[in-house]
Write a structure and sequence with these properties.
single chain, alpha/beta, 11-stranded mixed beta sheet, 16 helices, globular, binds CIS-heme D hydroxychlorin gamma-spirolactone 17R, 18S
Amino acid sequence: MPDKSHAVPGAPAPEPPTLEEPTTPREPLEPKPDQTGPDVRTPSGAVAGEDQAVNAQQGEWLTTSVGARLRDTDHSLKAGERGPTLLQDHHLREKITHFDHERIPERVVHARGAAAHGVFTGYGTAAEVTCAAFLDKDVQTPVFTRFSTVLGSRGSADTVRDTRGFATKFYTAEGIFDLVGNNIPVFFIQDGIKFPDIIHAGKPHPDREIPQAQSAHDTFWDFVSLHTEAQAHTMWNMSDRGIPRSFRMMEGFGIHTFRMINAAGETSLVKFHWKPRLGVHAQTWEEAQLTCGFDPDFHRRDLADAIEAGAYPEWELGIQVFPDEPDQMFAGIDLLDPTKIVPEELAPVQPIGLLQLNRNPSNYFAETEQVAFHPGNLVRGIDVTDDALLQARLFSYIDTQLTRLGGPNFNQIPINRPHAPVNDMLRDGFHQDAVHRGVAPYRPNSLDGGCPFHASGADDRAFVEAPVEVAAAPKTRAQAASFDDHFSQVRLFWRSMTPIEQDHIVLAYSFELGKCYEQTIKERQLQCLANIDAELCSRVAANLGLPAPAASESVPDADPSPALSMVGESWPVDGRVIGVVTCPDCPQDEVAAIRQAIFDAGMVPLLIGPTGGQLPSGIPLQRSFDTARSIEYDAVLLAGGIAAHADDPRVALLVQEVFRQAKAIGAWGDGDAALTAAAVDAAAPGVVVGDSGEQVLTELAGLLAKHRAWERVG
Ligand code: HDE
């Protein structure tokens, strides 16, 4: 049987370390096989070579930042062994000074993130609506995707209830296209001028700076209950979409309506969607809370581990297409209102390409932290609309990098460098990496031979600003009446949920409002819920111990959209994590066989034993009864032979939590003794008991494809 122990991801280095401190000088180690940096480009987009090591540390000796070799970096230069440090110690000063400035400001929003490199392949199916070359059939474009939470600081936990960012940088041959979206298709506000307000309300209170990375507090609910256009986004947040199981199992949305332009110059309005191949899945609220303590890095670990294990996450990019009518409405929905969706039943999502993430970054700071997205990074064939939220974003993203990345040359940082030739007339500034030539960075000029020239000719591949009409209208700080309905789509969402999803929404509102201090804020939000749905309102009100108000507005009904539900289908199980509870007394050949079968099914086995170390057969244990916790596993298998440990309270806790979380549980041989000891019903939905491990695993994988055995808790 081939040894697949390497396939359990998480090793910190490409080679196992030696016990003794190494003493033989050598070149720096290569990164691990799953890791890579950005393609090596010059600041102006030219190919600089294949070897990414040219950007990494060089040689076998420790040096200063300017290459002088050092004999000692452990002792300051002093007047005698016990004397004062000398000011002339340039190495000490350089080392400490650089350290003092290692931190840069974190992103004001989306500070907490994780990213991966990958490739996007066009299907060619968008040619009717856009001339964007990267969407042509079989064109492959390198990409870098960063996922994030919105509210938390850079060091906050991954599994808080929040919106997730889903930003992709496409390094196309026609320049960079950034699709900077979220995992929720509607936004809190209809006009970007209110962004500081919603973010100030969601961030920790300014007096005590609590709570971190959460919306369960007074200022958040104060704002969204007064500012009712936020109710749609808030409902999505309270649904299971707010606590994803994995970045790999999230949809993504461009939110705004964009304009596409085809080769004939015709325009269409579109909305972007990312559809994950693994389906859309969530943690339970209990899991999300446990995970914040047990593994605050759960989502970034999951993404990196999956890529390291070869379970490359994939999403199909799709578009909803609408005619570019002067009113920019579709089926009565204002396409410029980013708090509204167009249900997929009214405008199907048409697939236009495939994203695969297949390489982990080799340096978090250089890549994930320094990547700078900008919704104004557009390519020929894709343009913006007048959505007032998008318009404000077009200003913000460049502006924020000036502080965050320390000057105007952030596009020259390796991760931000385009893969298309850059010939701008921007010059100088902090951290200028390009060495421009010529004397005339202005137009028109004759001294530099007139360079650079405007694009011209029949096929100049220049960016197209669609010549859409702008209505002559008085200047005003106002918005259209078509933005005024704040509740009907929230009701649509609620009524599109299955009963179990509705239960979770009720619990989420109850938890969040229950954490508020001020009664009036709870009452005001209950009034919003009353306008959305009377049953939702009365259930939350009952949990809060408050009366349920009657609706204060008459809200039009809309047909439910089944596409919004996350429950009911089967999905691939690639990269899912199976915890196998085992022990030295279990038949070793059975454990080895099940471990191999899990690998063969494209999943990752984590073997859990009474202690760390390895089993008598040499199979390594990844977890002990002390370090294992339910939240890590998508399903758990109880090995035959485990009966001797069935009464261990740590095993019982694991089994009970996994059971409560509606996850699949399997037991073979006498493994079911652990079910009995945990008082778990072996006949309950989602529990599989059998003689053969392989047969139990097959059934377990079938259950896992549906994500959870909801009927167990429904
Ligand atoms: Fe952002 N947003 N945003 N945003 N946003 C930022 O840009 C902003 C909005 C989104 O992984 C910042 O480089 C304003 C909508 C993502 O690096 C900042 C407004 C959507 C990311 C900023 C919005 C997003 C950001 C912070 C209202 C979904 C993370 C650092 C007009 C379609 C990108 C930075 C990454 C980041 C401003 C609204 C998504 C300050 C002013 C709507 C995924 O520029």
